[in-house]
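TICKET #2291
ISSUE: user wants both folds in one file
ATTACHMENT 1:
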Amino acid sequence: MVQTLRMPWTRGASLSADHRARLLGAGVEDEVLDTLVLHELAGGPLDAWWHKWGNALYAADVPERLVEKLVGYPCRDTLVVVASPVDNLVSLLVSDEGATVFVGPRSELTAGEIFCGGGSSVVINGDITATRCAVVDARNGGSVVVGREQLWAANVYVATDDMHRLEDLGTGVRLNPFGAHIRLGRHVWLGRDAVVTGHVDIGDGGVVGMRSLVRGQKVPAGTAVAGTPARVIREGVAWREDDTP
């Protein structure tokens, strides 16, 4: 989506009612939207087909390097909203039809990657620190909704699907997730190399230990889990970012 000749950005209309409703339906918190002044971006290095095919890109500020990261296979009716600087993001990839991506305020995904396929959604409500190389991947109509106040250590992997089909030889029935839905509540801590995949719901204040796999599981609020597959190691916990005795 990067043109050889860079044209100046044009700040267009504010967030439309239809797009606001779509974001809320995807899991964006209304109080987060209420704090933002968003304008649709046109011109710049966006290719002409982006708007011709009904795609929309909104931002709180003009992101100088966003389109260097934003890669679109031919896509339609895609909605991307970026409310944080994304200088340290490696890529934001959208494809097919009807993808919805929201990167909320104060979101830092150092060397991170976001992929959103057709009919899928990735919502990061904001106030997240992912220290390095986080991957967030939603496809096949799946969704990833991330609450505020997140801390992710290096190499966290959050994906709705396995990207390939695994089936029973006898029946042909698919065995692995397809278009799963992942929700991370507020104030969740994911340890280094943690993997979250399939239908997953992690409650507020949840903790996932280093190199753990949470797959098709529900983690109650205030609970620490660890292992592959993850199991409860402690209930009734609270965590904070400062490292004190």
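ATTACHMENT 2:
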Amino acid sequence: MAVTDLRFVSRNPQKVKEVQAILGRAGITVESIDVAIEELQTDNSDRLIRHKAIAAYERIRQPLIVEHTGLHLDYLNGLPGGLTQVFWDKLLAERFASLFGNTSDPSATARTQVAYVDGKTVFVSAGEIKGRIASAPSGSQEFQWDCVFVPSGYMETFARIGSTKKNEISMRRQALDKLVEHLK
């Protein structure tokens, strides 16, 4: 039996909108659950997403999904990865772009992992998109580092290309598409 509705534990309204839009195309209704789940602070994204999923399930006690997205900078050998939020909160847009968009190698990979947990199993799917860090923020700074990440094949940041185009090409879309296949 295919899943037609999911609970998504996230405090980020922009992520909720994207997940609802992407999964809505697959006929899945997403209920937002605005609960803080303390994330494991590690550069190991696999450990982080599994820990987050289990912690969320222990709070909600219903099948649900959680998500984690990180930037893996070539210049920093894949950091900050699972620690992207920590870096972003300390540096913010201008300093992040200045530090990493002006390096000898501004290449980056944006990676999303989505975990579905139903109390018996944890299923993790992932998606990633290559790109680079812009030398200066461009577009709305409302959705964290969307204003500094330029996906490969584009001249503008995620913030500038807009949510419709981003939802067609993003790492979040890739991860959610794999989740939909699993849930069928």
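RESOLUTION: both attachments delivered.
EXTRA DETAIL ON ATTACHMENT 2: The radius of gyration is 16 Å.
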